[in-house]
Amino acid sequence: ADEELETVAELSKRRGFFFPASRAYGGVAGFYTYGPEGASLKRNIEDSWRDLFVTQEGHMEISAPDVMPEPVFEASGHLDGFDDMIIECPACDSSHRADHLVEDATRIEEAESLPIPEVEALIAEYDLDCPVCGEALTDVPVEEFNLMFETNIGPGTSSPGYLRPETAQGIFVEFPQLKQYARNQLPFGVAQVGTAWRNEISPRRALVRVREFTQAELEHFIDPETDEPPLERVADVELTLYPADEQEAEDGGEASDASRTSSDGSDGTYLTMTVREAVEENVIASDWVAYYLGLARDWYDRVGLDMDRFRYRQHLSGELAHYAADCWDAEAELGGDWVEITGFAYRSDYDLSKHGTHSDEEFTLFRQYDEPQRVERATVDPDMSVLGPEFGGDAAAVADALRDLVEHDPDAFDGETVSVEVDGEAHEVDTAVADFSREEVTESGEHITPHVVEPSFGIGRIVYSVLTHAYGRDTVDGEERAYLDLPAEVAPTTVGVFPLMDKDGLGERAREVEADLRGAGFAVTYDDSGNIGRRYRRQDEVGTPYCVTVDYDTLEDDTVTVRERDSTDQARVPVAELPATLTALRAG
Length: 588
Ligand code: ATP
Prior knowledge:
Helices cover 31% and strands 29% of the residues. With 588 residues, the protein is of the alpha+beta class. Strands 3-10-11-21-16-15-14-12-13 form a 9-stranded mixed sheet. The protein has a 5-stranded mixed sheet with strand order 25-24-26-27-28, sandwiched between helices. It is globular, with a radius of gyration of 29 Å. Residues 166, 198, 200, 209-210, 213, 215, 340-343, 456, 458, 460-461 line the site of adenosine-5'-triphosphate (ATP).
């Protein structure tokens, strides 16, 4: 299993998919450079994602800054809560993720959802040592470590900023502007493909856990009472599901599920069912999440993941983020381990409510009633100059708090006094002084905070999974070859063009064919070095689906040989028909 990942790492480095960055200066863990092949593969996967989630699904795409000011992350909760558990070795000063040490030493999974004292107890119980120097870690405290990269905006330190740990916040903060583009109509979705940064304690497993990575996120804003997903579009898509209760039933995590890579449903652990069945049988609680699991399943297949090494795993209740009502991860099996590549979360109104409370902007939308409604409305005196000297400098803030309260909880005014909190201090206000009253009015609608459904794709992990799943070996003409069976849509090069030999005008003719194909929009590689067999092998190894050879017959009849990577079948095709033939082949 490890061998598979080592082979992929070696291939990636040698053929220019990805390699550790800044090697000239010793390198630094958690940063990778995508080489020419990798950058192209990555971009093609991003474009394919865009094609589905923006173009086909009809959502908008934005590009927000990587750096945002501190208040954004105060509101989002990242400043306080975006922590991992760190343990520092007293002997060699190396840092480690305490939950990962526990996971590696035991069969416990998702140790990050355990409280710190429990993790400390497990470290003691299993006598864990520092993986670098071997010093005992018993009695070393486990602490919280915030994963955000901090920086200063402008000179000085008065304006701290953070590199975004997820692209999502850039969408949430701009909701007041974005809702105008959506003409204040729900539902609408906003997508973003961009860099996210996390100062991971221990980067590992190549592109799986790095400190700078690309996310492709969609925030779909919905009215939870009226909006429903177009489930019929994905109803028949078959899903491999690993629900929370199946995981919990499994011996408290004693069984290592990493060994089970089959998805035929026969081992009783996974449920194999269609989206329709999963919704009907309530295996997936949210129809919206079910919709995206179905949509994404076909997309992973489209970009080249092996569907026999793929599953959707539901979060255990202890693992759920505080805002998430239900969450499923797409997981790919890599070298015997299951790796999360995408999170699908129902985030409710958590994010927009937070930004609504922390900022001065309006993060709500107006929901029109079918019929105007007579409703009882509570009011407080808008002036409230009556709030006299006893409130001191807080009078204006107390008045604001009262106005806010009457909108959200008019019943709080039913007694003789009402209590509001300003800057942590409670104030009792006489309801008569606040001039509270109720009146009947006609309303045409109400302000609601939209809910959010979020598929959050990690592009680097997907690139890595696609590479790993695409890698294979077989024998062609008695010779072993390594290949990547990448789908044509994502392969870095679509077609390799070779002159049989670089003489007698073959090279010139091949260059013309190359230019024509480039002009027709194909990603082309030209190669005239080594024998034809070796040139095929080179293209097979980087996943090029088609190769075109210009030979002596070409000079006679203007046909070329088109060779297909997986079958190695060859056919003669007139040069004039090459673009159409390749387009048809690519479309499958
Ligand atoms: P993990 O538990 O593995 O740290 P997460 O649950 O924190 O991941 P999310 O916050 O849900 O991840 O982020 C969404 C996606 O972003 C993940 O599914 C993953 O593909 C990607 N991602 C998150 N952290 C990293 C990282 N350090 N390196 C590469 N990709 C990452």
